[in-house]
Amino acid sequence: MTEIYLRLVDRVLTPLIVVLAISLFLRGHDYPGGGFIAGLTFAAAIELTILARGAAPVRRQIGRYLLPLAGFGLLLGVTAPLLGIYTGGFFKSIWVKFDLLGVTVKVGTPQLFDLGVMLVVIGMSLTYLLNLSERGKEQESPVFAGHR
Amino acid sequence: MEMSLPPTILAFPVAIPLAFAALGIVFQLMRPTRAVPMQQFLAGIALVCNLAVASVLLVFTLSGGRLAFQMGLWPAPFGITVYADALTAIMLFFVGLLSLLLLPFAMASLDARRERQGFYPMALVLLMGANGAFITGDLFNLYVFYEVLLMASFVLLALGGTPSQINGSIRYVVLNLMGSILLLLAAGITYGTLGTLNMAQIAERMPLAPPAVTALIAGLLLVAFGGKAALFPVFFWLPSSYHTPHPAVTALFSGVLTKVGMYSLFRTFPLFFPDLLIAWQPLLLVLAGLTMLVGVLGAFAQPTIRRLLSFHIISQIGYMLMGLAVALIPSPFGVGFGLAVAILFLVHNQLVKTALLTGGGQVEIEMGTGKLNELGGLVSQKPLLAVLFFIAAFSLAGFPPTSGFIGKLGLIEVTFATDKWLIAGVSIFVSLLTTMSMIRLWQYIFWGKPHTQRRSRSEYAPSTTQAMLLTPTAVLVVLSLLIGIFGQRALDATQIAASQAIDRKAYIETVNLQPTPGVQASEPSAAVLGTRMSAP
Description:
- The complex is a heterodimer.
- Chain A is mainly alpha-helical.
- In chain A, 63% of the residues lie in helices and 8% in strands.
- Chain A has one domain (4-133).
- Chain A has a two-stranded antiparallel sheet with strand order 1-2.
- In chain A, strand 1 (95-100) and strand 2 form a beta hairpin.
- In chain A, helix 2 (35-53) packs across helix 3 (55-62).
- The longest helix of chain A is centred in the last third of the chain and has 25 residues, at 109-133.
- The model of chain A is unreliable at 138-148 (pLDDT under 50).
- By secondary structure, chain B is mainly alpha-helical.
- Chain B has a domain at 280-502.
- Chain B has helices spanning 12-26, 32-62, 86-109, 112-116, 119-135, 139-158, 163-194, 199-205, 211-229, 237-241, 247-272, 274-279, 281-300, 305-325, 337-367, 378-381, 383-397, 403-417, 421-446, 463-485, 487-501, 504-511, 524-533; strands at 67-70, 81-84.
- Chain B has a two-stranded antiparallel sheet with strand order 1-2.
- Chain B is globular and about 70 Å long.
- Chains A and B meet through helix 4 of A and helix 1 and helix 4 of B.
C-alpha cells in the first residue's frame, strides 16, 4: 500500500502543478516556458499520482489515450506550419488579436505548434513513466514473421 | 526550358510523412483490427504523395534548377534553410520509391503483433528523418534529423521485442549515439569558430578558419557520417543489428540508413572542404579500400542470408567513398566525374541491395529460416525468384548489362585516368570476391537438394500474398537492368547532380544569405575568429 502522506500531497499538489503547467504553456512565447516545459511539468503532476496511488489505476484511466494523444500533438505540430503556407510559406506565423473582457488576447499558429509539442511530450513521457512504474510484465512469446 | 517552383514545396518531403505518421498514431485509439488497415491506407497515400513531390523536384533540378526555402520566411542565416539540387532530388526520389515498393512487401509479410505495435507510422517517421537530412541546409538541423532517423530506426529494430532484437538494437543505438555526439561536437566547434550553422555560410566562411580547426571539423564529420554510412573502422553496429529485425525492416534500412550517411559526406565535403578532399585523398582511398575488403571478407564467414548481405552493404559503401575521394581530381572526363559515378553507384546499390534483401527476406519468411545450411533446392519451387535473385546478385558483383557494371566501370575508369592503380586493383579484386560470395549464396539457397524437413509455407499462402512479396524484388531488378542498359543517360543525370554538388558558389547564391545587422557583410567571421582564436 502506498503512503498516506504521499496520497495527501498528491491530492493537494497535483492540481496545482497542472495549473502551473498551463500557465507555463501560456506565457511560453515571449517568456521562459512553452510547450516542452509545460508538457514535462504536466507529466510530473501525473507521475506524482502514479507514485501515490500506483500505476494500475492511472493506466486504467488514461493509458490507452497516451499514444494517440502524442499522435494528435504531432498532427497539430505539422498543421500549424502548414497553415503558414496561406500567408507566404511553411512555418510562417499567423497571429490574431482580439479583446476579451477588456484584455487583449493574442492567438497564433506558434501557440498551436506549442500545444502540439506539449501533447507529444505529455503522451510520450507518461508512456515511459507508466512503463517504468509497472514491474516486469511477462512478454508474450515472440512470433516470427509469417503469413497471416 | 525554364521551370519555376514555389520554394514552399521543399516543406512537403518532411511534412507529408510526418502528418500521415501522426494521423496513423491517432488511429491507434481504435481496435487494432481496424487501426492497422487504416495505417496501411494512410502510409500508401503518404508514400505516393511523397514520391510525387520528389518526382517534381527531380524533373526541376535535372533541368538545371536549384531551390532554397527559408523556414517561416526568416531570411538566411537566421532561419533554418532547406535546399534542394539534383543530388538532393535523386536521393529523395529513390528513397521515396524504395519505401513505396516495400509497402506491399511489409503488408504481405509482417506479423499482426509488429503491425499493431505501429510499424507503418514508424516507417513514415524514418522516411521523414531521411528526407529531412537530405533537404536541410543547416548543420544543426542535420543533426536533429539524424536523431529522428536514429529514434525511428531504433523503434523499428526493436519492434517485436525478441531477445536477439533487443541485443542488436542496444548495440545499434549505443554505437550510433557516439556518431551523433561527434556530429554535435562538430556543429558546436563550427558555431564557435565561424559563428554560423547555416551550411551556405559555413561554406563561405570556412576558408577563414585556421587550418587546424578546419581539419578538426572535417575529421569529426568524417567519423560521424562515416559511422552512419558504416565505413571502416566504424561499421560494427551494422552487422550486429541488421539481421535481427523483420526482413522488411532490414530491406528498408539497407535502402535508407547507410545511404543517408554517404549522402551527407557527398554534400558536406565538396561544399565545406574542397581542399581537404584533395589533400586527404590518400586517407579516403585507404578507408575505401579497407571498407571494401573487410566487408567482403567478412561476408564469407556468415551463416545466414541477412548476415552475409549485411557485410556486402559495408563492402559496397567502400566503392562510394572511392568515388568521393576522386571527386575533385581533374580527369579527362571533367571535374566531378568521380562524384557523378559515386552517386550512380549509390543509387545502384540502394536498388540492388534492397532487391537482394527482399528476395532473401522472402525466402526467410517462407522457409522460416535464413540459415544457409538449412536451405537449398528452391529453384524448382520458386523459379522466378531464383532468376531475379540471380540478376540482382550479378548486378551487385558488377556484371553487364546491369547498373553495377556501369557503376564499377565508371569508378575504374576514373581511378585509372587519375593514376590510382592500387585502389582500382583492390576494387577489381573485391568485385571478384563479391562474385564468388554471391554465387555461393545463390547456390546455397536455390541449388542442390531441397531440405526435406523444411517445406515452403508459400504452398498455403494465397497467390496475391506471393505477388506482393515478389513485387519489390522484380521492380528493383528491372530498374537495375534499365540503368545498366541506358547507362550513359543515367550517368548524364548524375553528372548534373555532381556538378551542382561541387558548385559552392551557386549553393551560396541560391541560399541568398542576408547581411548580419550591425556587422559588415561576410566580415563577422573575421570578427568572430579574432575573438575566438586569440586565446592560445
